[in-house]
Design a protein that fits this description.
seven-stranded mixed beta sheet, alpha+beta, 9 strands, 267 residues
Length: 267
Amino acid sequence: MNRTDRLYALVEELRATAPRPRSARQLAKGYEVSTRTIERDILALQESGVPVYAESGRHGGYVIDKTRTLPPVNVTAAEMVALAVSVAGAQGTPFALAARSALRKVLAVAPAGQVAEAAQLMDRIRLIGTDQPARSGPRPTGVAGTDAAGGVPAAGKAAVRPASGPAGTVVPLAIQEALTARHVLLLDYRDRRDALTVRAVEPVAFAGTRAHWYLLAWCRLRDGARAFRVDRIVAAADTGEPAPHRSYADLGVGIPDALVRVLDLAG
């Protein structure tokens, strides 16, 4: 059992036995580790905000406050990433520490496989100049040809938005799944001139500014890197075709590193 799985199991065992305490020796025997390892695990849980307390005495040990802990919840990788992005957006507010603590509590009880999947998706997200006002924040115009073909609007021009409908709720999910699986996406895309094109793209990353979110991808139609504004993607379908491995750096977006923020899943 790896450490993440053990931390999850410890929380659930302490919840199941509460209010009766479990000693470090009992826990160590059950998980076939040393008492020192259990003590380090308990400390990690406490630092992440899990309400685990030590009771002294002959029959003492560790006990958890069931009224302040979450029961097992099925939080998806995308939901964990959504929480982490929200926590990043809370920086500088009075709720920043509380938001970070809530996220860590969720991560502490999430299955290891889902945490790993969330971390993989998180590695493909960038925030660009999000500490600047929305109107003056930088746009990912460093991607070759984005103003003409990728749909990033020129300053002062009105954005053309696709009509609202069911597709608006499934497009981000399709993109997220293709990003994680490294599959080619087929997009119906409406640019700032209201021209609709069909694009086969190799998705690389999500990039968010204060104003908009973009899909950064290698466009096979234009044979180059492009930024597609997410609210202009009318439809997206995962083709199932494996996409060549490309990283954010491979796209050469040309945005200064000082303006680009890489997020940490733990907040």
